[in-house]
Amino acid sequence: MSAGEARPGSNGTGPRMLRARVLSGLIPFVGLVLLWMLLWGQFTWLALATGVLLASLVSIVFYLPAVRLSGRFDLVRAVVLLAVLLFDIVRASLQVAWSAIRPRYTPSNAIIAVPLVTRSDLIMTFTAVMVGLVPGSIVLDIDRDSATLHLHTLNVASVDDVPALKRAVLAAERRLILAVGSADDLARLRKQEPIGQTGSNQTDERSAG
C-alpha cells in the first residue's frame, strides 16, 4: 500500500461508528440497571451487582437491534411538544368526560391506519406513545415495514371525520421530529413523502353498541 493511499477507518469513521454502537447499547443497559435499583428501592452494591447481572441476561436473551439516536435536541421545540401534548390531553379528557355524561349519546368508533413520515423506530414508538396518552385513541398496532400506525378512535361519526384524525397524528409526529428527529427525518418532513402507503385509506368503522 502506498503512502498516499487511504486506509480503512483512517478518517475516524470506524472509531465513530464503534462508539455510536457502544453508546446505543450502553444507554438501555444502564437504564435497566437503574430501573432494577429503583424497583428495589435500594442503591447498594448488592442491588447494583444483581442489576448488572439481570441487565446482561435481558440483553443477551431478548436481543434487539440497536436504537439509532439522532444526536440532536431542540429545547424550544421540545417545550412546544410537551405544551401541546398536555393541552391535547386536557382537551380530550374533557371531551371524553362530556361524551360519557351527555344525554342520549350514541357511541361511535373507528379503526384507522395512519402512514407516518419517519423511518426511525424511536420516532415511531414515541409517536405511538404520544397518541396513546391522549384519551379517546388507542394504538392497536405499529407496522414497522410501512411505518403505519393502526388506531382505535372514539367519536367518529362518518368517514369525513377521518382526515382530521390523521392530520392530528401527523402533526404530533411533526412536532416530535422537529424536537429530536434526525436529519433524514427532517428532510422527509420537508418533502412530505409518507413512506407507508399501504393501508393509508383503510378505515373500519364500527358501532360501539
UniProtKB/TrEMBL annotation:
Keywords: Cell membrane, Membrane, Transmembrane, Transmembrane helix. The chain crosses the membrane at residues 20-39, 45-66, 78-101, 121-140. One of its GO terms (molecular function) is monoatomic cation transmembrane transporter activity. The keyword Transmembrane applies. One of its GO terms (cellular component) is plasma membrane. It is found in: Cell membrane. The keyword Zinc does not apply. Belongs to the CPA3 antiporters (TC 2.A.63) subunit E family. This is Na+/H+ antiporter subunit E. It comes from Subtercola boreus. The lineage of its organism: Bacteria, Bacillati, Actinomycetota, Actinomycetes, Micrococcales.
